[in-house]
Design a protein that fits this description.
Length: 136
């Protein structure tokens, strides 16, 4: 389809170049019109044939002869380092019947919940919401 389009365009351009060179046809000069049409047809056929006979360019294809295998590099893995854990003093607080906002309540809630906010008395639960610390 692409070659056909090229040939048609070149035929029309050749005819557009050739036809104005002929004079205007008189009432009895039908032979000149036929001659101009024949010249345009021949010119278009010659140019279209020349375009169609052009060799096509194709991309070169690279084929890898054989894959090369390399030895895998060693993976660095650090050795574990053992450190003694600091001993924290466990404070046991009876959680029953603690009144909010007392020192024992603060102590219990801050030990029980890592996200305890002492100003609001709340902690962030696993659901992502804030909950009021109730000791009991």
């Amino acid at each position: 389809m692409n070659n056909f389009l090229k040939a048609a365009v070149l035929s029309l351009s050749a005819a557009a170049l050739v036809l104005p060179t002929f004079g205007t046809a008189q009432a009895g000069d039908h032979d000149d019109a036929w001659a101009a049409g024949a010249v345009g047809l021949v010119t278009g056929t010659l140019i279209g044939g020349a375009i169609a006979s052009q060799p096509r360019y194709s991309e070169p294809v690279y084929i890898d002869p054989e894959p090369e295998y390399y030895e895998q590099r060693p993976v660095y893995q650090p050795r574990p380092v053992y450190r003694a854990r600091p001993a924290y003093r466990q404070v046991v607080v009876d959680s029953y019947d603690l009144e909010p906002w007392t020192p024992a309540w603060y102590r219990y809630c801050s030990q029980r919940y890592r996200s305890f906010d002492a100003e609001s008395g709340t902690f962030v639960g696993y659901d992502g919401r804030s909950h009021f610390c109730t000791a009991g």
